[in-house]
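Quick one:
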Amino acid sequence: MGPVEYIVVAFPGNEFNGDILPALIELVDTNTVRLLDLLFIGKDADGTVLSFEIDDLEHLADIDELDGEVGGLISPSDVEHVAASIDPNSSAALLIWEDVWAESFATAVRDSGGVLIEGARIPLDVIESAMADLPQAV
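Output:
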């Protein structure tokens, strides 16, 4: 199995329109990732939290094309954690996926006795700033 990770994508003002679905479908269809779980979490204007599975979003055109073993990994405490990080009248998607593209490297690391002790995703604005501060190549 490749590395498994999660991401939380917030949609301030509850502006989720489904436009991320074609890109996610492409990642799954090209065997780049394997979707393990996906949950949408919303918070209304008064702070009431609700969560729902992707299957509950039948009005999204591309939803039937998304393949995966979705369900069961995201706990109520995960929902609470994400809900605490979004503003009222906002929503978020919590995704758990396997990085299938890295499976052979992960296997090689394990087979050589290596143990992953840390990893992180660097936000785009942070890396862009760091790259901009590098001296120009000659």
